[in-house]
Input
Amino acid sequence: MFFKNALRAATAISLVATTGAYAENLTIATVNNGDMIRMQGLTDDFTAKTGHTVEWVTLEENVLRQRVTTDISTKGGAFDIMTIGMYETPIWGANGWLVPLDDLSAEYNAADILPAMAGGLSHDGTLYAAPFYGESSMIMYRTDLMEAAGLEMPDAPSWSFIAKAARAMTDRENDINGICLRGKAGWGEGGAFITAMSNSFGARWFDEDWNAQFDTREWSDTLNFYYNMMSDSGPAGYPTNGFNENLSLFNQGKCGMWIDATVAASFVTGADSTVADSVGFALAPDNGMGVRSNWLWAWALAIPAGTQKEAAAKEFIEWATGTGYIELVAANEGWANVPPGARISLYENPNYQAVPFAQMTLDSILSADPNNSTVDPSPYVGIQFAAIPEFAGIATEVSQEFSAAYAGQQTIDEALAKAQALTNDAMEAAGYR
Amino acid sequence: MARAVTTNRKALNTAIAWTIGFVIFFPILWTILTSFKTEAQAISDPPIFLFFDWTLENYSVVQERSNYMRFLWNSVIIAGGSTILGVMIAVPAAWSMAFVPSKRTKDILLWMLSTKMLPAVGVLYPIYLIFIKLGILDSRIGLTIVLMLINLPIIVWMLYTYFREIPGEILEAARMDGASLKEEILYVLTPMAIPGIASTLLLNFILAWNEAFWTLNLTAAKAAPLTAFIASYSSPEGLFFAKLSAASTMAIAPVLILGWFSQKQLVRGLTFGAVK
Output
């Protein structure tokens, strides 16, 4: 009896010791958005399955970007997993700052990741970050206002139709703006929108020799079209409006159309929206040149090279970006709230197909190609950005010039001339030209 | 002779003072009000001021999502520690500059102040690398030292200004009575400069409490103070204004209460020596 009890005790102690040695405490840096907050609430499921615990560091997107860049470039080791986007992943992967995710388990089924997402999160064909959710951009519009204007939204409209519809839907007396678009300075705000829009007008940031292209007719057409349309049909103060401001306007019934991230679809049809029952969706417009104006973005989980907890970090990534997590969210919060845009199987699921914006989100993602985003050839990868380290700084300055032009502080031509000069200067200083 | 102030003039001055006070306080008031609204009410246009269905839901969500007490405790230790450490170093420094000045004292004071003009981001990488080497990244001790160092010029300057108002003859008399340097500073100078030291402590505690650049960049999960707590509710993609307001209210409440209770000492200290 004594020996049996002793054996049991020894087994128990060794099991506890083994679990203690194996169980890790992961520190994860992430952004503050609905999907990530939901994941934090479901972390207990991961802990129950693996024994690993998780500490979250949640930061605003731009703060997070600066924080993780400082840490990874100095090999600080403050985080075991970082939430990064499509812009950083290929650059950091090329620098050897990230652990390649080429040995994920068979159950994880990496082949199920949407090719557009996998491509944008890879460098030289190696996946460096697993997409947690992906997004493109599309048109969200008021079906009732469109009908009242005597128009019908095509599934794939042109910019000329959008401008016409915007003017027809504008009702200044009732505070209804035909169209709400980002104008706020910042490469991820108005800069992202105008770059994606410019692609459909045949513009590009650089020619194949990395010369800035803001002195071309295509850029002039893009900015003048945007400015004229927003002056006629946009909300007051649009040069300072970003995603949140437009979401607020749309949800209060003050926008006829809004072109922005597909992730907004769940907000404008959600409980906080006053127009949830009369929202339609369409692909982002084109200009008859073969390229649409939608972007592609993903928030993805990556492991910084040098972490001591690589195995546990990979377990977390498999849990958080796998199909099991999608089912977990669906069971807890409903199919409309599962993280979209990352996996093929999600869009084959009949339960998800019933979500009103699911198909248009998928169509938007599939129509975006980061490797061929411009009409004329360009030397960079990316749709609303060029995946080079210098882009964020340059594009922020350029978007500031554009926003100043929208606000009437300078002309469009002046803004383009300044953008041309500052971009060429920066590219020359960086050794591209 | 003091000028007679008419009743009308008094009323006008009072009205102007209240108006300025209200304008200064309005952003805090608006944050507090927004924290009791729903997300939809928080963004309504025209804005709703007082007549809405007040809710505590945002506070409940914030409490559920974040470990507020851990952030609060980190803030108290970092802000309190850096202030106390700073004053311990600054009192002897200010004493020597005020009572035993050299011909370079003014230059040293200006040089100390000039370090405040350096953009913090300019030294982020060197400091970050030092923290990695010393193993104090994401630690309270590391942040306490950094915040003490960045506030030290202000502490020295404030204390120097207060000490200059104290007649040197009193300290001289203490020395003639046999007081040592330590006794002179501790038992003669410090009691006379209590209002000044108190307001310096309070002001620097507030500065350290509100510091957001270093506290965000040098912490992760363990040592993050309330500034990181607020930052975790800000988002460019998604409406979190009501929750952000609740988090902000919870973050500023302790220091607001502290300031409220010690406003007499604060004003007395800040105006110490202003009227002769």
